[in-house]
Every structure is written in C-alpha cells, then in structure tokens.
C-alpha cells in the first residue's frame, strides 16, 4: 500500500487530447503488477434544445475546494479498492462538442477493482466536485448544465 | 468583520465574477439576508454554502475574515 499522497492537480485548460490518453496508457507498461485498466472518457455532447444545438461547454471550478475534495475521494477510493494507480483529469475552459472533457483511469491486478473504482470515481466527482458547465449554443446563447 | 463572498456557475449571472465584500455579518443567515437585499435575483436560487471551502448547513457563525462561497448545483464531468 502506497502511503501519503499529496493533492494532485486534476485540471487541464482546454480539451484532453486523445494522444495524452494514449501516452498515459503507454506509461503503465513498466507496472507489470497491473492486470487490468479501466478508463472512462467524458465527451461534450451536442444536445439539441428547442432547435438550438450545443456547440461547446465552458467549464469553471472552485479549484482549491475541488482539489481538496478530490484528494479526499482519492484517499477513500484507494482505501476501498486494491488499486495500483488512479488518474483523473478534468477540463476547464471552452470544450467543443465531440472533444474529451473528462479522463478517469484506474488500474489494478484484477479487473473488478479497476472497473468498480473507475465507476465510483466518476459518480462521486460529478456529485461532489464544485465544477460548473455553461452550455454554449450555436447562436451564442447559453444555459447552465445540470447533471442527471 | 468583513466577509468576502464568491459565487460560481449560474450565480455569476447575478453577482458577477469578482468577490463581493460585505462589511459585517454575524452568521451565514445574516449574510444571505444582506445579499438577498442587494441581489433580489438571488432569492430562491438553488445553492449550498461553503465557509472557507467547507460546506456548512444552518446558521454558521462567521468569525471574521471568512470567505463564503455560494455553490449552485455541481455539473462536472
């Protein structure tokens, strides 16, 4: 069990590049105690609301509070599941429809822990992290995103 | 003692992006009452309150030099 983790920054300005995700997977090839990875990717959806299409989501956060809370979630997830590692990246700023805005990556010796932990992290961060999204439509009007 | 108020998400449409200073507020209820008078659009908006990054409920005493954040429903991911 790894001890004392420092709060990590999870925020990235702009979209998360698919090449960053690929590199992140590549970096794990030296950790041969891993037998399974689980990855969740959030992508900005072009919702159509009353004939108006979402072209981007502009994310903002109460960053200091979000990082403190994410640190608590990280510790609790590591205490609950036998993970080898966990990585969380969330975009800030304007992310166009079709781009990646969330990347959660868990790894464990056996698949079940990675899959369950990944799912729990996604659910918890949506519910507990102070992050907001402004859905900007093609005509530049906007509405505030609500998590369902 | 002055209180700094910061807001996020949809509440920035009402109070803007800069911190608002309230000269004196004994507790969070007193503070919200003052804010509601200053920003009537704030009344009945859904949000939770964090004092110095800790979520609080009920009448929370403000000891001085606190930062109070009004947090509308979270929408990350």
Query: How many strand segments of chain B?
Result: 5
Query: Which structural class do the helices and strands of chain A define?
Result: alpha+beta
Gyration radius of chain A (Cα, Å) is 16 Å
CATH topological fold name of chain B: Ubiquitin-like (UB roll)
Keywords:
heterodimer, A: 148 residues, alpha+beta, Aldehyde Oxidoreductase, domain 3, eight-stranded mixed sheet, 30% helix, B: 77 residues, Ubiquitin-like (UB roll), five-stranded mixed sheet, 5 strands
Structure commentary:
The complex is a heterodimer of chains A (148) and B (77). With 148 residues, chain A is an alpha+beta fold. Chain A has helices at 18-26, 63-80, 111-128, and strands at 11-13, 36-43, 48-49, 52-61, 83-96, 100-108, 131-137, 142-144. In chain A, a hairpin with a 3-residue loop joins strand 5 (83-96) and strand 6. The relative contact order of chain A is 0.26. By secondary structure, chain B is α+β, with helices and mostly antiparallel strands. Chain B has a single domain (3-71), classed as Ubiquitin-like (UB roll) (Roll). Chain B has helices spanning 12-15, 28-38, and strands at residues 3-7, 20-22, 48-51, 54-56, 67-71. Chain B has a 5-stranded mixed sheet with strand order 2-1-5-3-4, covered by helices on one side. Chain B is globular, with a radius of gyration of 12 Å. In chain B, 25% of the residues are buried. The chains are: A alpha+beta (148), B alpha+beta (77). The interface between A and B is medium-sized, with 27 and 14 residues.
